[in-house]
TrEMBL record:
Keywords: ATP-binding, Iron, Iron-sulfur, Metal-binding, Nucleotide-binding. This is Cytosolic Fe-S cluster assembly factor NBP35. GO terms for molecular function: ATP binding; ATP-dependent FeS chaperone activity; iron-sulfur cluster binding; metal ion binding. InterPro entries: Mrp-like_CS (IPR000808), Mrp/NBP35_ATP-bd (IPR019591), P-loop_NTPase (IPR027417), YlxH/NBP35 (IPR033756). One of its GO terms (biological process) is iron-sulfur cluster assembly.
Length: 322
């Protein structure tokens, strides 16, 4: 009886693998975006990576498997959209003709509703996404995973084992409390046979144009008095060239060497740093690409270099022109 039950489970699992392999046959490259902790900018990176690839005329799909925290719909400007069923399967929600998105966020009747699911149900929806979503011909499928190394990560690796995963990009912040968990993420990838394309150090210092800062003077009573207009006018009169400067400041302690040192110790590629840019945060809030204009003049060039470097690691050479 036990042997029969094991056989049935194995047979069902293999049947799912075959169905997923058939669906993924039209997808050229699959890239996981991972993080050790939440709040490090993983989903922002996934969204901007997808925008960037689409801007280079690739056919791109973005799959959000962060079941309990699906933020991708907002970051792509797709809040309130619904999934439609066709004869070919579930249709992704399209930002552009060459950028489709799938997320459980499209299925929630109320965006404020919590998804309280145990592992098997999460695994089930991931399997359904992989089996039933009709992407068509894709150059890239970007998979935005939840933070950590939980059921969702094991499921996505197992379900795609027959089709292969081209690699993973891991997003972190510079502080040690984040890097500790990134080490575990790297270890996970090595154990399950997923190549680490590289690590991105996000929020690597605050950088923004001087003219975007708000200047205050602290009074004797401890109150803050806004003197921004006076400072800008003073610079305009005395040193106008200063108005073109970008000011940077460390947000997290980098004395330990940050992600670059960790990558060297763990023998994985370091893709680069992205500064904490308020304009990039605003682009994510508004669901738009940071490459569409010059507003993200601090973060967009850094992201561009990282994406191009990651592309060379995955065997794809491309350049993003702005």
């Amino acid at each position: 009886m036990l042997e029969s039950k094991i056989f049935l489970i194995t047979k069902g699992f293999l049947k799912n693998l075959v169905a997923i392999a058939e669906r993924m046959a039209t997808v050229k490259r699959k890239i996981l975006v991972l993080s050790g902790k939440g709040g490090v900018g993983k989903s922002t990176f996934s969204a901007q990576l997808s925008f960037a690839l689409a801007a280079m005329d690739f056919q791109v799909g973005l799959l959000d498997i962060d079941i309990c925290g699906p933020s991708i719909p907002k970051m792509l400007g797709l809040e309130g959209q619904d999934i439609h069923q066709s004869n070919l399967g579930w249709s992704p929600v399209y930002v552009e003709s060459n950028l489709g998105v799938m997320s459980i966020g499209f299925m929630l009747p109320n965006p404020d509703e919590a998804v309280i699911w145990r592992g098997p149900r999460k695994n089930g929806i991931i399997k359904q996404f992989l089996k039933d979503v009709y992407w068509g011909e894709l150059d890239f499928l970007v998979v935005d995973a939840p933070p950590g190394t939980s059921d969702e990560h094991i499921s996505i690796v197992q379900f795609l084992q027959g089709t292969g995963i081209d690699g993973a990009i891991i997003v972190t912040t510079p502080q040690q409390v984040s890097l500790i968990d990134v080490r575990k993420e790297v270890s996970f990838c090595k154990k399950v046979g997923v190549e680490v394309l590289g690590v991105v150090e996000n929020m690597s210092g605050l950088c923004q144009p001087v003219t975007d800062f708000r200047f205050t003077r602290v009074t004797e009573t401890g109150e803050q008095k806004d003197v921004t207009e006076w400072v800008i006018e003073y610079m305009r009169e005395k040193a106008p060239e200063m108005l073109n400067l970008v000011a940077c400041s460390e947000v997290f302690d980098s004395s330990s060497g940050g992600a670059a040192k960790m990558c060297k110790e763990m023998n994985v590629p370091f893709l680069g740093k992205v500064p904490l840019d308020p304009q990039l945060c605003k682009a994510a809030e508004e669901g738009r690409s940071c490459f569409a204009d010059t507003k993200c003049g601090v973060s967009a060039p850094a992201l561009q270099r990282i994406i191009e470097k990651a592309g060379s690691k995955s065997g794809t050479v491309y350049h993003l022109s702005r």
